[in-house]
Amino acid sequence: MRFLLAAFMVVSAFTFAAWAEQPIGSIDFADGPFTLTRNGTAVSGPSIGDDIYDQDLISTGTSGSVTIALAKATGMGGTIKVAPESSLYLEVDGPEGQQHSQVELISGGLSLKLKKLAGSPTLAVATDTATMGVRGTEFDVTTSDNGDILVTCTEGEVACTDESGSSVSAVPGQTVEKQEGQRMQRRALAIAEYQKFKATWISNESAAFKRGAGRAAAAIAIRYLDLLSRFQSIHEELAANGTLRRWAEEEKTGTSAAGPELDSQLAEVGPRLREARRVLGAMMRITVRVDALYRVLKEDRAALRQPIRKGLSTEEFFNRFRAQRAENFQRQVWLMHALKLYRSKLALAHRTAQQTGAGGAAAAPTGGAATTPTGGAAAAGTSPAPDGTSGQAPAASP
After folding, report:
1. Ranges of H-type helices in the chain
2. Using alpha carbons only, what angle is made at residue 340 by residues 337 and 342, rounded to the nearest 5 degrees?
3. Please, which pLDDT band fits residue 135 given cuts at 50, 70 and 90?
4. Which range among 179-188, 204-213, 348-357 shows the weakest confidence by mean pLDDT?
5. What are phi and psi of 374, to 5 degrees?
6. Distance separating alpha carbons of residues 378 and 398, to the nearest angstrom
7. Contacts of 253 (CB under 8 A, 6+ apart)
8. More confident position, 257 or 265
9. Rounded distance, CA 239 to CA 334, Å?
10. Rounded to the nearest 5°, which phi and psi values hold at 146?
11. What is the pLDDT of residue 357?
12. Strand partners of residue 231
């Protein structure tokens, strides 16, 4: 009986290994420069036809755009078009027919054309201050360096929920705009005017950011430093965690613990990983804002002399930030890989429980379309891979 149970667990593990690596999409079209980062490493020469997996980070250049065709694993049909100067990654969890997909929009914008295939799958787009949830529709989400958001919908309905839980629907013939620190606002606008309005909105947001960069520098820098402290604490703890190192080794061999042993592992690391996920997106977004701030102020001597806090000038802050930039990014993608491993183990526990008739093991780190935006964090320093080796720095950062 023990032999049969052990054999069942090994078969379950290897069956799951194949399932876990199924793509969630593919590159349907690409124009101009873009980068693809997977499991902490830059993918060499990504091109049309390449598969996209859970937690892959896609970043486009100033003249680049990428269209992702969603795969059956998401429960959705359709495409996600990534605009120039944008960065995002996609998360998927949940059983077939009830998949919860979430696009973490780090910067820039995207256009979605979606339809659900079967069951009740959901997809959400998360930004720093709002989450857009849909079941099947066509809409655009555009963000700015000011932290503002514009949503336009050409078909269906998009539920836009801000950090306070307040919700406003975007429908054809109306736009939804969220300015940082303010409530969402709707305005009537003909669909034929959307693209012109969006181009003007982007131009106005850019001009406003440049005008106010000097005044905003201290607030942005202090937020970054606060998040940096939070993220460093979480990352250092997780990077030293033996369970995560073991999972990284098991990923290479296609094996895994199952049953009570896996349940225990999930209970051990789950709470800290779910906390880390809540700060990851905001960490990546505030990093992009500091990058933008530096580009505007790097030649402004008066602004560079302004204090961020006692003993730290704007120039000194930028110097520290730039010195840590690559290491900071590497720790972010390390955490993305750790979260991917966690969701893989959760899925294995769920499948094993279904086959044995047992209960589930732990709560998933993602919340599907109901997820609301949360705070973020920042990091610095050399990041080990989950297996203890040094992660390879990607060719480009978001």
Report:
1. 2-20, 194-239, 242-253, 260-297, 301-305, 314-356
2. 115
3. low
4. 348-357
5. -135, 180
6. 14
7. none
8. 265
9. 9
10. -75, -10
11. 67
12. none
Residue environment code for 179-201, b if the CB has 16+ CB neighbours within 10 A, otherwise e: beeeebeeeebeeeebeeebeeb
Report how far residue 173's alpha carbon sits from residue 261's, in angstroms, rounded to the nearest whole number.
54
Going from the C-alpha of 393 to that of each of 264, 327, 346, 396, the distances in angstroms are: 32, 8, 28, 8
Strand partners, 77: 115
What average pLDDT does the segment 2-19 reach? 38
- Mutual orientation of helices 260-297 and 194-239 as an angle, nearest 10°? 130
| Residue range(s) occupied by CATH 2.60.120.1440 in the chain | 23-208
The pLDDT of residue 351 is 82
Return the bridge partners of 278, or none: none
Helix, strand, coil % over all residues of the chain, rounded to 5: 45, 25, 30
Question: If phi over 0 gives left and psi between -120 and 50 gives alpha, with beta otherwise, what is residue 111?
Answer: beta
Sign of the C-alpha dihedral, residues 184, 188, 194, 196?
negative
pLDDT digits (tens, 9 = 90+) for 24-67: 999 999 999 999 999 989 999 999 999 999 999 999 999 999 99
Q: Is 74 helix (H, G, I), strand (E, B) or coil?
A: helix
CATH architecture of 23-208: Sandwich (2.60)
